[in-house]
Prior knowledge:
By secondary structure, this protein is an all-beta fold. The protein is built from no helices and 24 strands. The chain has strands at 2-7, 13-19, 27-34, 40-49, 55-64, 70-76, 83-91, 97-104, 111-118, 124-130, 136-143, 149-156, 164-171, 177-183, 190-197, 203-210, 218-225, 236-239, 245-250, 257-261, 271-272, 278-279, 283-288, 296-300. The strands form seven sheets. The chain has a four-stranded antiparallel sheet with strand order 3-4-5-6, with no helix packed on it. A four-stranded antiparallel sheet has the order 7-8-9-10, with no helix packed on it.
Amino acid sequence: DYVTIKYSNAGVPLWTNRYDGPANWQDWATGIAVDTSGNVIVTGTSGRVGFDDSVHNDYTTIKYSSAGATLWVRRFTFPSYDDAFAGPLTIASNGNVFITGTVHNPDSGTRDIATVAYSSASVPLWTNLFIWPGDDQPRGIAVDSRGDVFVTGYQSGMDANSGTDAATIAYSAAGAWLWSGFYTGPAGYAQANAVAVDGNGNVFVAGSSQTTTNISSTDFVTIKYSSVNPPPPSLSIRRTMTNTVVISWPSPSTGFVLQQNTNRLGSVNWSNVTATVQDNGTNRFIIVNPPAGNRFYRLFKP
Length: 302
C-alpha cells in the first residue's frame, strides 16, 4: 500500500494515510510534492483487476489537504496499453499536476513514456505519449513559471547493440510538443536522471554517459538547453537486428530535408536522400542497408 506521513518541523507525527488499490495488490508510491496551499500530492503505481481477470497497473495520484483529508484520487492507463507505471511528478504554481512514467505495449513488449496533466481539481487536461522503437524510461520532470513541462530520461533501440540516448521532451502548458533534445555520448550510451529549470526558463539535465563500451566506465553529464531557441532536431542512427540502419528524427521538426554525402560533414557536396520517409507519429525515419565506405547524414533547412 501507499503510506504518506506528515511530521511537524519538530518531528512530531501529525497524520498518516494509507492507500490500498482496488485489486488489494501491490501499490507503491514514486513521487510526492506540496503545492502553494500546503496540499500534498502523491503518485505511484497501483494494481487493478483487468477484463482478463489478471492484475494490471495504473498511475494512481492522490491529493491530500494539509490536514490529511483525501481531496481526490485519479487513476490513469493509456488505451491499448495493458500496464502503466508512474514515476516522478511536479506541480505548477497554479496547482496543475504533471506525472510522467511508462506504459507497457503488449504487442511490442516495450515501454513508452506517458505524461499526464491534471488541474488542481483533478480534471484531466492532457496526455502525451513519447514512442521510440525500444524501451523508454523517464527519470525526472520539471515545470517552469509559464507552466511548460520538461520530461527527461532515456530512449533505447530495439536490440542490445543499439545503445541509449539521454532524451528530454518539452511540452507547453497546454500539452503541445515544443521540442526534444537528445544526447548520445562518445560510446553511444547515455541516460538522464534529473531535470531543473531556472528563473529564465533555461533547462538543465543531469545524467551519465559511458566513455567506452565498458559499462563500468561512465562520467557525469550535464546539459543546458536554451529557453529562447529550442534545440534543433537531432538525428539518431541505429543498426537493427536485421542488419539494416534506421535514421530517425522527431516528427514535429517541419521544414527540414534529410541529406547525405560520402565525403565528410564539412563537404559542400550534399544531396537530398530519395528514400521514402516514414512517420510513426513521434519520429520520422528511413531504413537503409549499411553503405560501403563512409556515409554522412544531416538535416538541412532550406
